[in-house]
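can u do me a favor
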C-alpha cells in the first residue's frame, strides 16, 4: 500500500536550513502558505456563474436533437428506431443532468465534494504531527442516496 508521508519537523533541521526552508513560499515545511491561493481559486470556481443562455441552448439543442433523431434513423435501423432513439435520448439527458449537478461542486447537497471531511482529515494529520489529541472523525451524513435530482 501507499505509505503516508510524515511532515518535516523543524526541530531536527539545522538553523541555517530552517531559515531557507521557511523563506520559500510552497516548500515542504511551509505548506500552509500555499492554502490561501488555493482557497482563492476554489472561491473563483464557486462564484463564476454559468450563463443562462448557454444552459438554455444546451437544453434546447438536446431536446431538438432527440426529437428529430428518429426521423433520421428510420431508414437505417427500421423497426429498432424507437429503441435506439430512447438509448440516445437517455444518454443525452443523463449527461445534461450530470452537467447541472456538477455545476456547483462546493455546496452542501449529497453529490457535492466532501469539503468538511477533507478538512477534518487535514486537521487530524496536523494534530497528530503536533502531538495533540486528534479530533473525532466526522459522522457520515444521514442521507446517503446520492442521486441526481
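np, heres the sequence
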Amino acid at each position: 500500500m501507499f505509505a503516508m508521508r510524515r511532515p518535516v519537523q523543524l526541530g531536527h533541521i539545522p538553523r541555517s536550513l530552517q531559515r531557507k526552508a521557511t523563506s520559500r513560499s510552497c516548500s515542504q515545511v511551509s505548506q500552509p502558505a500555499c492554502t490561501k491561493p488555493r482557497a482563492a481559486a476554489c472561491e473563483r470556481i464557486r462564484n463564476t456563474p454559468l450563463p443562462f443562455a448557454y444552459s438554455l441552448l444546451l437544453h434546447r439543442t438536446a431536446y431538438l436533437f432527440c426529437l428529430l433523431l428518429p426521423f433520421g434513423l428510420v431508414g437505417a435501423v427500421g423497426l429498432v428506431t424507437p429503441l435506439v432513439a430512447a438509448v440516445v435520448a437517455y444518454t443525452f439527458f443523463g449527461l445534461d443532468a450530470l452537467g447541472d449537478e456538477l455545476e456547483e461542486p462546493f455546496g452542501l447537497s449529497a453529490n457535492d465534494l466532501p469539503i468538511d471531511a477533507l478538512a477534518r482529515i487535514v486537521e487530524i494529520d496536523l494534530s497528530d504531527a503536533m502531538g495533540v489529541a486528534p479530533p473525532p472523525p466526522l459522522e457520515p451524513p444521514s442521507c446517503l442516496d446520492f442521486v441526481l435530482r
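DSSP finds five helices and no strands in the chain. hope that helps!!
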